[in-house]
Amino acid sequence: xxxxxxxxxxxxxxxxxxxxxxxxxxxxxxxxxxxxxxxxxxxxxxxxxxxxxxxxxxxxxxxxxxxxxxxxxxxxxxxxxxxxxxxxxxxxxxxxxxxxxxxxxxxxxxxxxxxxxxxxxxxxxxxxxxxxxxxxxxxxxxxxxxxxxxxxxxxxxxxxxxxxxxxxxxxxxxxxxxxxxxxxxxxxxxxxxxxxxxxxxxxxxxxxxxxxxxxxxxxxxxxxxxxxxxxxxxxxxxxxxxxxxxxxxxxxxxxxxxxxxxxxxxxxxxxxxxxxxxxxxxxxxxxxxxxxxxxxxxxxxxxxxxxxxxxxxxxxxxx
Length: 319
Hints:
It contains two helices and 22 strands. The protein is mostly beta strands and 319 residues long. A nine-stranded antiparallel sheet has the order 7-8-9-10-22-19-18-13-16, with no helix packed on it. It starts with 20 loop residues before the first strand and ends with a strand.
């Protein structure tokens, strides 16, 4: 071989940028996604329930240590999906045969795909900054019991997006049949807090709510909601731009923003009610949880044939 005096230098090869990792459990019941920066989520295919969301080295969601993760009942903790009804069913009507909170949280969902994106343009941010996992449920893969209770043709796509700055969960509902139907939808998020008695919520002031413990309908007058007993409130028609903030003492812990979900449920069972739940643990676990639930539950969403509905939330962990 003849050596050339001005041989061109080799083109440098840049190392491959790290990318999110997605894996499945050995029994194919759960999916885990991890970002190169360490943030992670774990999603149970039973109910498409997010059962873990970690960032900054810590867990952001509360999961009962007695929660059933085998599909035998809804998961107590994480982010269960409430669809197509919120709460117990009425005595009559098209949803009267459904179980409390519907069938989405008790059905086996299908994992569809993943996608990644790079949101930063900084020169040293070559790795993917987020990963989205899509899950599907439709009338064709419902149980016979659920089909009988709600005989409509529909398709659901639930997207869970993990980013460095937060967790986004959104649902797309499509009416795939010839008949219209009505539904309610809620993201039943169990947030982990250090001490519920030192926790407050801001962003609800001026909003009308129904108190499901006391039975009254009132308007939030305080600048911050604090907790001294069982709390179960449905805040209705919030300003779409309002940010709901959870504080531990004077420190902001979570921020919740919503897309096309105008209601927010705030729930903590406190001592007595938690003690009556067979799947709730530890016994004093109510001290370390607060449900802030974005949804469309104060009225019914109606979908005509071929129409779609989309709604979701973004939760930012601030520690």
